[in-house]
């Protein structure tokens, strides 16, 4: 399937609805697989990702966790389509690290 034929979820929950609103998207990457989403986890990236725009969270999960931390590879054109389908580019994506807070 070519990138131009990828179906993007542009439902109100993703793009904001009317009136515009943003919903928090949380992705748990405590344990993961490189090759598929099935089977016994083979990696422990130990990340929790949060954002208010699901396509950006998906993009950052692939680029920052799957590729940089886990060493997985992906078709860049497909991954960039996560953002391009909504009018954004990879340069628009911002990765912000929030250090853990110690509670005493």
Task: Describe the structure in your own words.
The protein has 104 residues and is of the alpha+beta class. The chain has one domain (3-92). Helices cover 28% and strands 10% of the residues. The chain contains 3 helices and 2 strands. It has helices spanning 12-15, 54-69, 76-84; strands at 25-29, 47-51. The protein has a two-stranded antiparallel ribbon with strand order 1-2. Helix 2 runs antiparallel to helix 3. The radius of gyration is 15 Å and the shape is globular.
How many domain units?
1
Shape, per Cα inertia axes = globular
Distance between the termini: 52 Å
Task: Supply Rg.
Answer: 15 Å
Low-confidence stretches are none
Note the beta-strand portion: 5-15%
Q: Give the averaged pLDDT, no decimals.
A: 82
| Biggest sheet descriptor | 2 strands, antiparallel
* Helix-strand makeup class: alpha+beta
| Lateral arrangement of strands in the main beta sheet | 1-2
Number of strands: 2
Helical segment tally? 3
Percent of residues in helical segments?
25-40%
The SSE order reads HEEHH
Provide keyphrases for this structure:
two-stranded antiparallel ribbon, 3 helices, 28% helix, globular, alpha+beta, 10% strand, 104 residues
Summarize the structure.
The chain is of the alpha+beta class and 104 residues long. The protein has three helices and two strands; from the N terminus they run αββαα. The longest helix has 16 residues.
List the helices and strands and how they pair.
Elements: H1 12-15, E1 25-29, E2 47-51, H2 54-69, H3 76-84
Antiparallel strand pairs: 1-2
Helix pairs in contact: 2-3
């Amino acid at each position: 399937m070519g990138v131009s034929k990828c179906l993007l979820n542009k439902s109100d929950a993703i793009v904001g609805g009317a009136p515009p609103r943003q919903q928090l998207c949380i992705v748990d990457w405590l344990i993961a697989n490189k090759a598929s989403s099935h089977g016994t986890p083979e990696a422990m990236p130990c990340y929790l990702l949060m954002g208010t725009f699901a396509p950006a969270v998906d993009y950052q999960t692939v680029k920052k966790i799957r590729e940089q931390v886990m060493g997985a590879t992906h078709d860049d054109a497909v991954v960039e389509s996560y953002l391009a389908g909504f009018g954004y580019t990879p340069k628009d994506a911002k990765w912000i690290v929030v250090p853990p807070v110690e509670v005493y």
